[in-house]
């Protein structure tokens, strides 16, 4: 399932990307954060690499709200691209596939995965907009 995890009680293990609506203050697994599985965040990782040149998947990235505006714009572009019935084999130019078999698995259930990814991006954009009103930084706490 391609989705955002909103509740830490739904996390199993530690292979998640945490999105914290603040600067990192030495603690992970914050109740105010949202979480992505490694694979689900992998789909949108190219957006972060494009918009935040210092982005490091394995580090704690404190990203200012102006950069989040660029990220949001690029996420909106990805969402629109997906909504326009793209050729499944053109996706690797737009989204990331973090594991060797990620692209094949995505294409195997293409219609459902595209719908779920669009939904995940839509929810993420709403969350970013909401949090941007009350903070100057949103941090991506990597692996």
Protein topology:
Layout: E1 16-20, E2 34-37, H1 38-51, E3 60-64, H2 65-83, H3 102-108, H4 110-132, E4 137-141
Antiparallel strand pairs: 1-2, 1-4, 3-4
Explain this structure.
This protein has 143 residues and is α+β, with helices and mostly antiparallel strands. It has one domain (8-141). 44% of the residues lie in helices and 13% in strands. It contains 4 helices and 4 strands. It has helices spanning 38-51, 65-83, 102-108, 110-132, and strands spanning 16-20, 34-37, 60-64, 137-141. A 4-stranded antiparallel sheet has the order 2-1-4-3. The two termini are 20 Å apart. The model has no long low-confidence stretch (mean pLDDT 95).
User: What portion of the residues fall into strands of 2 or more residues?
Assistant: 5-15%
Please report the number of helical segments. 4
Biggest beta-sheet profile: 4 strands, antiparallel
N-to-C SSE series? EEHEHHHE
Give the % helix: 40-55%
Strand order, sheet with most strands: 2-1-4-3
Q: Report the C-alpha radius of gyration, rounded.
A: 15 Å
Shape verdict: globular
Distance between the termini: 20 Å
Total domain modules: 1
Mean pLDDT value: 95
* Quantity of strands, as a count: 4
Q: Given the helix and strand composition, which structural class is it? A: alpha+beta
Poorly predicted residue ranges: none
Task: Give a brief description.
The chain is α+β, with helices and mostly antiparallel strands. The chain has 4 helices and 4 strands. It has a 4-stranded antiparallel sheet with strand order 2-1-4-3.
């Amino acid at each position: 399932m391609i989705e955002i995890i909103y509740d830490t009680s739904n996390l199993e293990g530690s292979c998640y990307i945490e999105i914290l609506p603040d600067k990192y203050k030495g603690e992970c697994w914050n109740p105010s954060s949202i979480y992505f599985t490694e694979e689900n965040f992998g789909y949108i990782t190219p957006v972060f690499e494009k918009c935040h040149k210092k982005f490091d998947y394995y580090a704690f990235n404190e990203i200012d709200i102006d950069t989040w505006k660029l990220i949001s714009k690029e996420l909106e572009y990805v969402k629109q691209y997906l909504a326009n019935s793209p050729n499944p084999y053109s996706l690797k130019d737009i989204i990331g596939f973090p594991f060797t078999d990620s692209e094949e698995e995505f294409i195997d259930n293409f219609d459902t995965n595209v719908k779920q990814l669009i939904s995940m991006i839509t929810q993420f954009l709403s969350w970013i907009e909401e949090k941007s009103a009350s903070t100057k930084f949103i941090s991506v706490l990597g692996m």
